[in-house]
């Protein structure tokens, strides 16, 4: 399911409002202001990082209340829950979506059960339970957690960051903020990590809306980064939908999605923008993580994977393009795994 309505951007009004993602109020489909569940999130800094001598603009989306960009989606999704009067939800997640939904449910007073696969980062489990949500560990992979949660949804509302279209109505604010921070224009390229595509699709929806409203002149090329060890979308993009993939474990747990439900939509968005996929190896992800940290950015491995992709993109293209990327998740979410890697 997707939501279709006409986004509006009254720029002079928007400029007067607080610097949060809710300043684009007319474009977020929540009817009553009283239902908004917000920590004044968003409008994250857009900073320049030099990659092989080229300036890349990087949104600091690890600086959200729960430490990842997923708060964009959770804020709108939980506001919607309030609007329709839901007081109990279930969600399944590889970690960050669960943490984000749990944080916003805590604020809204909504009871929350989160299903996770057994092996997710202990720091994320700790974070989810700290917010008061109940954790259900499911044996096996991420897909098993998704199956287990479906059995529960007969009794409780399924606050899924993947299926529920309100989540994308939040993640699309990434595009609005980028455009505003560039002086109401679109960049040439946006390089994003992709697993289930909640950031990628949100970004695409956001730029399409800005383009239709004639706020920006084009929709940027979307370049999507996947871990080589789990790259179903990159494989389908280059070899077709039926291509067989052989997935292995990856340190980029946030994008380790074997069967992304919105695969077709994601492939379409990348194709329509003349974008492409980049895959990155485990050692490249770890190197990127160290490289970012040495510049003062402590990113979790999933977020560092993006920069292994940025390095490859910049290395190949001798380009004057205006490139945007983002740090999607905070390094503190992965502390115990990093400790076992010993960087020093
Ligand atoms: C969820 C997540 C992603 C990828 O999001 P998808 O919706 O699965 O494409 C990237 N980085 C981090 C840190 C995440 O938590």
Compressed to H and E, one letter per element, the order equals HEEHEHEHEHEHHEHEHHEHHEH
List the ligand species.
Answer: pyridoxal-5'-phosphate
Low-confidence stretches: none
CATH topology of the largest domain: Rossmann fold
CATH class value of the largest domain: Alpha Beta
Total number of strands: 10
Which bin fits the share of residues in helices? 40-55%
Tell me about this structure.
51% of the residues are buried. The chain is built from 13 helices and ten strands. With 344 residues, it is of the alpha/beta class. Helix 3 (96-108) packs parallel to helix 4 (122-130). Helix content is 40%, strand content 15%. It has two domains: 11-68 and 168-343, Rossmann fold (3-Layer(aba) Sandwich); 70-166, Rossmann fold (3-Layer(aba) Sandwich), CATH 3.40.50.
